[in-house]
Design goal:
By secondary structure, the chain is of the alpha/beta class. The protein has two domains: about 35 residues, no CATH class; about 200 residues, BirA Bifunctional Protein, domain 2, CATH 3.30.930. The chain is about 30% helix and about 25% strand. Helix 1 runs antiparallel to helix 2 and helix 5 packs across helix 6. The termini are far apart. The N terminus is likely disordered.
Length: about 250
């Protein structure tokens, strides 16, 4: 298959009379571009500190090259509120839970144990993919994951995320830097939702949240994470997936 791509590219470019060092370099690198646009590394990081993970995402994105393979990071965080870059909201009630300001989009939300986090470190320039298209793919993958477990999820216009019976079950927040994304999605699997009561969830007053457990689904984060990863990878046309051997999410 790669030889067919290579020959097609060679003759297409040759017809345009591009015969210089740039042409030679493109011929040499083109198969690598084809491979990397369909390759994916999935890292299971377990229970991870938010500030450290945030810094690692930034470092990864800042240091990646055109040939860097895209990655999904699966994890959960200790209890923490996070703000989007344009968010000035703080918890409405007294709380000992820390608030962390980030550079993602969106408003104020809560992360805690029992919530599946999937961070998407993707080169959307290389994939020729727009942010809106990516958001649609993430929402579709979450809906498909919920459907696999017998839950009917939906989306709302002008309110990113996934909802069940008008309650929010999954949130999205993406940052794009130099054509590459980080941050991602959170899916409430089996978590304490009480801290959400102290905030206007994602900037919406009186918006309630729910969990898969509350909807009668008893399953672990590993099971949900694997289903969500495979569904999202299919939505984004990743064909070669490598899973790391990190400790599974408990």
């Amino acid at each position: 298959m790669l030889s067919e791509y290579r020959n097609f590219f060679y003759f297409t470019v040759k017809k345009k009379c591009i015969r210089n060092s740039t042409f030679v370099n493109l011929i040499a690198l083109f198969p690598f571009f084809v491979l990397n646009s369909h390759q994916l590394i999935v890292r299971n990081l377990g229970l991870a500190d938010y500030a450290g993970t945030y810094s690692e995402m930034q470092d990864f994105t800042r240091g990646r090259q055109h040939q860097t393979v895209d990655e999904f990071w699966l994890l959960q965080h200790n209890a923490i509120y996070t703000q989007g870059y344009s968010c000035s909201q703080v918890p409405l009630l007294p709380t000992k839970i820390p608030v962390f300001s980030t550079d993602r989009g969106g408003q104020l939300t809560f992360h805690g144990p029992g919530q599946l986090i999937v961070y998407l470190l993707i080169d959307i320039n290389r994939r020729k993919q727009g942010v809106r298209n990516l958001v649609n793919a993430i929402e579709s993958a979450v809906i498909a994951t919920l459907r696999h477990f017998g839950i009917n999820g939906t989306t709302k216009p002008n309110a990113p995320g996934v909802y069940v019976n008008e309650k929010k079950i999954a949130s999205l927040g993406i940052r794009v830097r130099r054509g590459c994304t980080y941050h991602g999605l959170s899916l409430n699997v089996d978590m304490d939702t009480a801290p959400f009561e102290a905030i206007d969830v994602c900037g919406f007053q009186n918006l309630e949240v729910t969990t898969m457990r509350e909807l009668g689904i008893k399953c672990g984060l590993d099971e949900v994470g694997l289903c969500c990863t495979e569904t999202l990878a299919a939505e984004l046309d990743y064909r070669q997936i490598t899973y790391t051997k990190d400790t599974g999410i408990q």
